[in-house]
Every structure is written in C-alpha cells, then in structure tokens.
Amino acid sequence: MNEISVPRPNSLDAYWMPFSDNKYFKGDTSRMIARAEGMSYYTPEGREILDGTAGLWCCNAGHGRVEIKEAIQKQAAILDYAPTFQLGHPIAFEAASRIAEMTPEGMDRVFFTNSGSESADTALKIALAYHKARGESSRVRLIGRERGYHGVGFGGMSVGGIGANRKQFGALLPYVDHLPHTHGLKENLFAKGEPPAGAHLADVLENLVALHGAETIAAVMVEPVAGSTGVLVPPAGYLKRLRELCDKHGILLIFDEVITGFGRLGTNFGAERLGVVPDIMTMAKGLTNAAVPMGAVAVKNGVYDTVVNGVAGGIEFFHGYTYSGHPLAAAAAIATMQLHQSEDLPGRARAIEPYWQDAMHSMRDAPNVIDIRDIGLIGGIELAPRPGKPGARAMDVFRRCFDAGVLVRVTGDIVALSPPLIVEKPHVDRIVGTLTDAIRAEAA
C-alpha cells in the first residue's frame, strides 16, 4: 500500500502517554498508528496492522464503521452539547432505553458516565447510597478481588487488585478488602472455557463476613472474566456461589462488564453467558465501539427505586459528570447497538468461538507457553518469565508481532487477544501464526 495522507506529530515531547514506557516509545517511533478500517490499523507509512485486540477490548464492530461516523456527524449538526443536570435531551433517553433492552430482565435503569473508570466509581457510590437509603449506613465496606481491574479512579483502584496499579498512590480508600484471585490452580491449566476447579474460592467471602460483619459490607465487585490482568476465566460455579453468598448476607453484587459486555462472550453481557445476574453492572468500551468515550452503569430497578424514593424531594443522588449522556456519545451508542442487532455480533462471536478456541490451544506446544485460557472471543497465552526479568519476554513478543503486522496486548508475561467480533477464520489464522512465530523467536 502506498503512503497515505495522514497527520504526523511535529513533536513527541508534549504528550505524556498513559500506561506507557514514554522513554522507550519516544526513542523509537516505529509503532505509530495513523488510521483504521475494518479489522486493521495502518501506520503513517501505510503498513497494515491486523487488530488482534479490538483496540483496547473496545472496537467490537471493527474500525471505521460508516453507520457510527454518520450518526456522530448528524448529531453534531443538531445538538453538540447539552447539560443533563436538571435538564434533558431526547437522545440520552433513547440511548438509555436501548441499553435497557440489552441488559438482563429487571435491570432497566441506566446512569451515564464517560469511561469504565467512572462507571466503576459510580457503581460503588450507588451501592453506598442504596444501603444508606435503606437505613443501613453501617454498610460502607467494599470487597474487590486480587488481580481485579476496575479502572484508575480511586474507588476502582481501591477495590482493584493489580499491585502495580496501586503501589504508586499510597493507601487509597479505607474499608476495602479483597477476595483471592482464581488463577494458578494446576487442575485448570489449559482448560477450555470455564475451568473445572476453584468455585470454592468464592467461599472466602464467608471469612470476610466473619471478620468484618455482614452489616458493614456494602458490595462485592468483580469482573465476570478478569481481562486486563491476563484473562482469568471464572471457575465453573464460582460466580453462582458468589451470588448466593451476597444474597445470604444482603450484599450487593457488582459486575464490571466493561470488557465482557456487548458481545465479547457471544452474548450481550457476560451475565447472560455465565448465568448470573448482578445487582449493578458497569459498562463502557464496546458501548460506542470506542468512537466517542462513554460509559454507563445499569442497576436493578429495586436499587434505583430505593435510592430515588429514599428522599422526599430534590436531588436524590449527588453524583454525575459534565458529559454524562453527551449527545455525540449517545448517538454513537445508538448506532453501535443498532449494528450489534442488525449484524448479530454476539451471534457471530458464538459461531466462530470453536474455531477461535482450537486456534488458541494450538499454541500449547510453543516454547515457554505454560498456560492458555479462553472464553468467547478472548484468549490468554501465558509465558514463562525470563529469570530476573518479569514481563520482558511478553513485551518482546508484543513488539515482534507489531513489526510483523499484528497487534496483540500484553500484561506481565501474558499475551491477551480479543479481536473485533467481525473477525473471520483467515484473520484468526494470521493472528495465531504471527504470535506463534514471535513466541518461538523469543524462546531464549
């Protein structure tokens, strides 16, 4: 492909890049992305990079979708912005209604945010407000899980359990505790789909109840599938057991569906695939196909009714964002959800999942592969770390893959894959072939 006309940076100095090795990147600018279309990104020089990660788990309908672009353009010409504090605009209500059509039955109330991080903090505040409205103000404790990721706000970081994301910022929120993660059980190595062992780990919640008292615990927050930490699939029965224990002790269960929502597991949300309905559900990423930043929190109707009817009049929930329900984001969300329905993107994911699963596990015998995990259109390939250099092997694999024309994602020494849901078998073959070659090249 010939060089294309795209913007080029005049300087790399001003932009402080997020979650990045700034010194390395600014000394080697070969990994720059300039445009995207369909299943691929393109560099400023026009070189194609097959997207094996849907951006950051978010471009589920593929890139450059005309339907979404035109919806944003049309809305910008009609209403560029309107506040939603004590005011409203029609398209925000329509977007909320569309989401409510996709969420589990009885979870029909939607609060808009601008990201998964904001959704996580919003969900935690809703949980606290719910218990206060019920006269249980003592329920202030929040339970997360080791290796969980719930964004970068102080609430999400506090219930999150990825050490590197926490250590730089001090003590974070008080009254937080964590369940153990479900990773590393030898019975689950190379399991396909939900692994067989580990449901008993949910019973640790009973220990936390015994330690702190159920009357102090507001909510438990987990990802149905822990993505950012390296694709930890819940053991069979684990989430159902967690649901039972939360019900037993009057604790709200929050699912962080930022990654698992909008078709990633072959269903609208992970709750549907895994057969467990939470009280509160966060979402973002695939909500707008990442064309405009947007997040949302869906709650059971009873949670909404309790908070809203808990005061006689006036503002019921003192929370919100300048851009909550932004018109352009709402337009992008509606167009995205229409695509999900018209193209049956969850159905496409289900149809290709067996092929994807076989392709993931075909890498089992590659050098230094110590585990492979998959569910829906997610895959995690765990590599043995180099002695004294944790994360180095996977990062070198990431760079080799990009240079060979495929984008993968790494966390520690785990390679994570999550392609757009429009992926086809030749794309899967190319992703797996390129990744296998890179793993072999980094065998030493």
Automatic annotation (TrEMBL):
GO terms for molecular function: adenosylmethionine-8-amino-7-oxononanoate transaminase activity; pyridoxal phosphate binding. Its cofactor is pyridoxal 5'-phosphate. GO terms for biological process: biotin biosynthetic process. It comes from the Bacteria. Keywords: Aminotransferase, Pyridoxal phosphate, Transferase. The keyword Cell cycle does not apply. The keyword Transferase applies. It holds the Pfam family Aminotran_3. Belongs to the class-III pyridoxal-phosphate-dependent aminotransferase family. This is Aspartate aminotransferase family protein. It comes from Neoroseomonas marina.
